[in-house]
Design goal:
Helices cover 55% and strands 12% of the residues. The protein is an alpha+beta fold and 558 residues long. The chain has a four-stranded mixed beta sheet with strand order 4-8-12-11. A three-stranded antiparallel beta sheet has the order 1-2-3. Helix 4 (77-102) packs antiparallel against helix 12 (259-326), helix 6 packs across helix 10 (218-238) and helix 7 (144-160) packs antiparallel against helix 9.
Length: 558
């Protein structure tokens, strides 16, 4: 309870569940003063209160629910849950393996393609930034003749030709030097011309050396063109395309990414995809290994679970038959049929783990059916084929009586357990309910057969019995082996076994649009209790004889 409530509870500490309903329609719930959700309250309620209604016997008709009841009696719910978890893991592995296997051919094609692309890029031995350098070198070699011609002309004009710029500047420098001796104001001009002359001489020397280095090399040009063609081809296939490469070669697209870098980035992407594809192949192998290990674990858990179930079924059989005998079915026989041999051998081991795992049930290898023979001379039949609702109700009550001692639910609610049951069995059922309460008299409440509607009395109401074992103080922590039993019944024979009765009536108050239905709960004691039971027995025509019968019922009840 503490885990579901997400609160800390000390040993022996009570749990207070509070729900507030506001006039606006809003509601809130809390656990020991801490906010709680409706789901938390519902989950905790299922641990604290077991409600059995008049249609609950239908629950037993489904074999899957019967298996749940058997597992509860066998105290095998933890083992059942563990089986389901392992089964779910295997189902997930099967799903994953099916996905990988279905895409096997496609993965192989993708892997071949990516391996080819990676090999093609790797064979080129790309170096980031080389495209810019190669492109510049290609531009130089492609214009070598023009460079030699034009730089030769420039060199001649500066220095090598008669009357070159440097020669004329040298003459001018000497002339200005002579003039400085006459007027020193020309000194700055003379120095500037002298400096310019020296700079142009240096430029001429550098230009001459540059011309000397310009040598035609057709082989280098061919190699560069071949390398650029390779880069262009790879960029077209794996980069942003030839258009960007061409623009970059023309000096456009400033700031655009290097096409070689784009190809290398694609190579890294391909490597990631190859790693994933190779990992999928490795996953298949790991899935098979993991699945085999889980199948063995499932086999072990399933055998243990089956053993517990068969042992519990043997113990349950005489207990149920004894209960049915007390409930007026003295000749009834009860049994549990196992249909798990389709997936397990005689020893309980899995014949084929894979086929067993694919069993649509994740609750184990067993499929069961509860069988009952209600009358001598008839074969045992599944509960779902028993036509009598009264028999089903008694079987359900018998199961409740047995299971109540094997679970920890302290509050049992029976809502009209007398459905399809005659008055002759009322005393038997009432005594059975008292036994569930720990052997003491039941506390009962009676819903008056007179329900008020619109201020008028209507017949045909129903009786409600609120049964408990050791008084109100036992609600939170009933004594060992005892339960608080609340019973809603039509039969006075059952209600007579209640320790305390309460009448619940509905009344419509107000008029017009202001009309509202009000429910009133009234404790009954002494003569009020006798009068209410008498009305349940004889209707409105209560006589001294009827009251005497009620007194006898109460005396018989204890």
């Amino acid at each position: 309870v503490a885990q579901l409530a997400d609160v800390t509870l000390e040993e022996g500490e009570p749990l207070l569940i509070t729900r507030k309903l506001y006039a606006s329609g809003r509601s809130s719930a809390s656990l020991n003063g801490q906010p709680a959700t409706a789901g938390m309250i519902r989950a905790i309620g299922e641990l604290l209160v077991d409600v059995h209604g008049q249609h609950d016997h239908q629950y037993l008709l489904k074999p899957s629910n019967q298996l749940m009841v058997l597992d509860g009696f066998a105290r095998a719910m933890d083992l059942r849950e563990k089986f389901g978890e392992v089964y779910q893991q295997i189902a997930e592995l099967d799903r994953r393996r099916e996905e990988l296997s279905a895409a096997s051919d496609l993965r192989e094609q993708q892997r071949d393609l990516y391996e080819f692309q990676a090999g093609e890029i790797d064979a080129a031995d790309l170096v980031e930034g080389e495209f810019v350098e190669l492109n510049a070198r290609h531009a130089l070699l492609s214009n070598l003749k023009r460079l030699k011609l034009d730089t030769g002309k420039a060199d001649a004009a500066l220095y090598d030709s008669e009357g070159s710029i440097v020669e004329r500047l040298q003459i001018l420098t000497h002339l200005l030097g002579d003039l400085v001796e006459v007027d020193d104001e020309l000194n700055d001009v003379s120095e500037q011309v002298k400096s310019a002359t020296m700079s142009l001489q240096d430029a001429a020397f550098e230009l001459s050396r540059y011309v000397d280095r310009l040598e035609e090399n057709p082989g280098e040009l061919a190699e560069i063109e071949d390398r650029l063609n390779t880069l262009h081809r790879l960029a077209d296939k794996y980069g942003s395309g030839r258009r960007r490469v061409t623009r970059r070669a023309a000096g456009e697209g400033e700031g655009e990414s290097d096409p070689v870098a784009e190809v290398l980035a694609y190579r890294a992407e391909v490597e990631g995809k190859l790693k994933t594809l190779r990992g999928d192949d490795a996953d298949l192998s790991q899935i098979d290994e993991r699945r085999d290990a889980l199948a063995k674990e499932l086999d072990t858990i399933g055998k243990e679970l089956s053993t517990k179930r068969r042992s519990a079924a043997k113990k349950l059989k005489p207990l149920i038959e004894a209960q049915l005998k007390e409930l007026g079915m003295a000749e009834a026989l009860f049994d549990v049929s196992f249909d798990g041999d389709a997936t397990t051998g005689e020893s309980g081991s899995i014949r084929n783990p894979q086929s067993a795992i694919r069993n649509p049930s994740f609750t184990g290898f067993d499929q069961i059916e509860m069988l009952v023979r209600t009358n001598p001379g008839q074969p045992s039949r599944p509960l779902r084929k028993i036509a009598s609702g009264g028999e089903l109700s008694r079987i359900m009550l018998g199961l409740k009586s047995i299971l109540a001692h094997s679970d920890r639910i302290s509050v049992l609610v029976f809502d009209e357990i007398d459905a399809n049951i005659g008055g002759r069995l009322g005393t038997v059922i009432g005594r059975k309910l008292r036994e569930l309460a720990g052997g003491v008299s039941l506390e009962s409440s009676v819903l008056s057969p007179e329900s008020k509607t619109n201020g008028k009395t209507k017949k045909g109401g129903k009786t409600k019995a609120n049964a408990k074992s050791n008084g109100l103080s036992d609600v939170a922590a009933p004594a060992e082996g005892k339960h608080q039993v609340l019973c809603i019944t039509h039969l006075p024979q059952i209600a007579a076994f209640g320790q305390r009765h309460m009448r619940i009536s509905k009344t419509v108050i107000g008029s017009g649009s202001e009309r509202q239905t009000v429910t009133t709960v009234t404790p009954l004691q002494g003569t009020e209790r006798i009068e209410e039971l008498a009305e349940m027995l004889a209707g409105k025509d209560v006589t001294k004889t009827t009251r005497k019968q009620v007194e006898e019922l109460l005396a018989t009840a204890g």
